[in-house]
Design goal:
325 residues; alpha/beta; Aminopeptidase; two-stranded antiparallel sheet; 10 strands; 12% strand
Length: 325
Amino acid sequence: MYFLGGVHAREWGSSDILIYFVDQIEKAYYANTGLTLGGNNFTASDIQTIVNTLDIIVFPQANPDGRHHSMTSNEPIWRKNRRTLSPNSNSGNCIGVDINRNYDFLWDFSTLFHPDAPVLTSTDPCDRDVYHGPNAFSEPESRNAKWILDEFSNIQFFIDLHSDGQEILYSWGDDDNQTGDPSMNFRNSSYNGLRGITDRVGDISSPEYKEYIPTSDLDVAIELGNIIRDGIKAVRGTNYDVISSDDLYPTSGTADDYAYSRHFVNHTKAKIISYTLEWGTEFQPPYIEMKNIIHEVTAGLISFCLWICNNHKHILIRSYRYQMR
């Protein structure tokens, strides 16, 4: 599994969570002890099982230049990287690309989405927050994250940590999910110009489009999202919502949808069940609160890992049966 953090510059805590996760797992493993995070208790056997069963890849800080700018300038809410190459410039908001709009999943939203879709992405190099870059994977930060997916072909689960919102988001982000029509999907050009009018937007005059997801994948995504939610809640009672990404707003070019989409584009690639985990209720909470959030999300990630260790054969059997239909 693959945990990514630090994509958006202002979300300092994502990197802290992942470093703490590694630190606590490593210490407990070598000491052969359990781990207690608030009201959530993991035994020594739990920790040994996780480390001895899983390959866990942690990329805690994907956007170091952006983070440095956020932490040292008068722009603590800076979101993007610090690109100055054309079509960007070295001036104000015209610097930078939103890394989480730069992946090769429906990146060309102007062509692929309905013109009235409220997709939170921009073609404007001077957009302060969501400029998607001159082309998909134009940025070294997104290419680095992709390199890990390419290099480690056994990755089957992916979580991208962000803030804020207290939500566990599963694919898809471009439109509402549907399980009945496999031909209605992001690869089908006959649906270009129709995506992104979600039920939440509620425009009944627009052609209806929904993104296909196999029932087996949707069931697993929700089941595992609930495991993360319950692991977080056990620490101090905080409730996170498990919802599809488009329930926030339609998106294009995001890491979670790209990671999940890869096996549809190329069937030789592993299926990767993917999430964006939105922690907390503000980008930079007071550190006393951030410590609590670190404990909560770490517990959620450990619960996620442990459940997969104990149930991975169940997941693989369901996936195999779907592919054989």
